Request: fold
Amino acid sequence: MSLMLKLLTIALLTSSLFGAAKNADIENFLYKKFKNNEDIKSINIKVISKSKMDNMPSWNAYIMDINAILKDNRKVNQKMIWFSNGSVITQDFINLKTGESLKNSVSPKFKAEFYKKANLIYGNEDAKHKVAIFSDPLCPFCRTFVPKAIKYMKKRPDTFAIYYYHLPLPSLHPAAVELTKAAIAAELRGHKDVTLNLYKVKVDAKERNVSKILKEFNKVLGTNIKPNDLNNPEVVSHYNNDEKIASYLMVQGTPTMFFDDKEDKTKKKYKEIK
Reply:
């Protein structure tokens, strides 16, 4: 359970809004519920996305951006999903046949401004389809899936514009953070095929010695990236921007793919294009 849900002490499995709901009504309703928690010093709630539910035309899914300061001065920023038909609000729906949470079918739309030139690794900007990949280079599934997917689409630059976003998972693969920053530094120096070669680097995912990590990186990519290069403001900015985009889109794991602005949970839509 998320921290914000733990802090929401009043049960909201199904609660009445008393009337047709606008974005402001949803925001005010949740604000009143959260502010009653004595562990929360201040909180700001905003609807960042509203979308109709398939097969449930009277219901909308709301993606909320919640910023809070707790009594111990910790800052919390989190995205949450709520559902409302204008009179009732609920945290989730469960499919009776599959047992699947309908939250899994809701994700923010990929904004046009997220398609940055710095993230375009292959293909033409005006290609028929845009594919966005969020990946950790030391994620086991990523290491087998991502290179194959990229190589497949790379051959068709007028069909696929491939945008890549670095998303290392520090708690699982600490070494991925340095590898990611080294890759960004190499790209800034003009090195080619950095992303594909990044997946060839063999290093213990738990390694924390930066020199050892960079030694393996430089050996595979033929670069000379040094520890100080990882702190280059341009490197840090690119790294942080990728992380912010992933946070906005509620990307929870890797690899995550978006196909033409929508999350592709199957990760196979690119193969369906003839």
User: Anything to note?
Assistant: The domain at 3-105 is CATH 3.10.450 (Nuclear Transport Factor 2; Chain: A,). Residues 195 and 228 are 21 Å apart (CA to CA). Confidence is low (pLDDT under 50) at residues 9-14. The longest helix spans residues 233-248.
